Amino acid sequence: MSSAQLNKSLSDPNVAEVGNDRTPPNYISVRSKRMREEDLPTEFCKFKEEMKEMFKSFMTAQKTELKVITANLKEIQQTNFNIEASVARLSTQNEEFQRKIESLELQAKKDREYIAILEDTVEDLQRSSRKSCIELKNVPRAPKETSDDLINMVLCLSKKIGLDLVTKDIKDIHRVQGKKVGTNNTPIIVELGSSIIKSDMLRKTKSYNIKNKTKLQAKHLGLTSNEDTPVFISEQLTAKGARLFFLAR
Which residues fall in a compositionally biased region of kind Polar residues (predicted)? Predict the structure, then answer.
């Protein structure tokens, strides 16, 4: 084969007839027409109608429920508004109450300070009125006891301890009434002529109890009944002073 023949391309001499006997290309598609409604199957039409009715019923129910929800929301909004108004009113009242409480606390503080001043004043007055008073404790009550009987008890006691008081040294004397019915050995309050006499009597009483094994008893006051009952002589203290003395023991 010559080189001229190799350079020639192989081709069909009858180009016009080429391809007439071949299959059409695969990329060509055929369009299908939409079926008319009257051409659809009966079951499908029924299904379509049922779906329409179902959606219609669903939409109606949704609208009804939406109306109910809207009404409830309005009611809730109104309730919230009322609650906010109530909270605001309560907040205002709370502020007013707080101011009143602060004012009352301040007034109470002033009252407590004033009461403390009054208590101190009363304490001073009581101490001043009792500066010459002594108290005889646990002394048995005599039958049909009188003030003269009490005076004689004190005079007898003063002789026993070596003080030798006279009637004019006793300004006043009385027995305290018991808080409970049937209490007999209530204290006897003796107001002496001066605070000096009171101090001497307390000193003599303490000295007697130290020097003698037998402490002061009812018989030393001239009593013939319950003679061995111990008796105690002390300064008449105020309620506050007695409390402090008790705590200090």
Answer: 1-12
What gap in Å lies between CA 106 and CA 98, rounded to an integer?
12
Neighbouring-strand partners of residue 217: 230
Which single residue is written with the structure tokens 């205002």? Answer: 92
* E strand or H helix that includes residue 209: helix 195-211
Q: Tell me, what's the pLDDT at 189?
A: 93
Query: What are the sequence ranges of the domains in the chain?
Result: 49-129, 132-248
CA distance 20 to 114: 132
Find how far residue 195's CA is from the centre of its chain. 51
Our CA dihedral for 119, 125, 131, 133, rounded to 10 degrees, sits at -90
In terms of pTM, does the model score above 0.85? no
Q: Which CATH class is domain 132-248?
A: alpha beta
